[in-house]
Design a protein that fits this description.
The chain is an alpha+beta fold. Helix content is 37%, strand content 14%. Strands 1-2 form a two-stranded parallel ribbon.
Length: 73
């Protein structure tokens, strides 16, 4: 079984490293898109994000397998 909390922690760590590595003085806009495949509950991921001191500007959950995106690609 896939561990959402480790995925969340990895995403936060990556964004923190990239934000600190930025050489300009502007704060980057932090957007994370999490693709949910199958019948996963996104609540553990949200709890992980909420418990972190690192803030995202936008969090998007996508499930391309539930038919919401249609056949337009």
């Amino acid at each position: 079984m896939f561990d959402l909390s480790s995925s969340c922690q990895s995403a936060i760590k990556w964004f923190q490293n990239e934000s600190f590595a930025s050489n300009n003085n502007r704060r980057p806009i932090r957007i994370i898109i999490f693709t949910v495949i199958g019948p996963r509950d996104p609540e553990p991921f949200l709890k992980c994000l909420q418990s972190s001191s690192f803030a995202f500007d936008l969090v998007v959950f996508a499930n391309p397998h539930d038919g919401q995106f249609g056949n337009s690609i």
